[in-house]
Design goal:
There is one protein chain. The chain is an alpha+beta fold and about 100 residues long. The chain has 2 helices and 3 strands, in the order ββαβα. A 3-stranded mixed β-sheet has the order 1-3-2, covered by helices on one side. β2 (about 25-30), α1 and β3 form a beta-alpha-beta unit. The longest helix is centred in the C-terminal third of the chain and has 24 residues, at about 70-95.
Amino acid sequence: MSTGILNPPAGPDDHALGPAHAPLTLVEYGDYECPHCGRAHIVLQTVLAGLGDQVRFVYRNFPLAEIHPHAQAAAEAAESVAAHGGNDSFWLMHDPL
């Protein structure tokens, strides 16, 4: 098992699900238009449900605008919602995107 250090570490500016004290932090650098990210999202829901409070999930926008022309706009929309409504609002926007 890796004991690597996340750089930058997960912090209050990240969009996170799960307790900050969870023994495992899973970070996704995601692109809303990426088909691989979309398939991973489905699997991730099962993993998070199965691990419960043992995992904290952090999502960081990483739009690949060169190959996904709508990814940047989607990331900006999610961040805008979060800026006005907080973390819960972010996830309400994130999941359907």
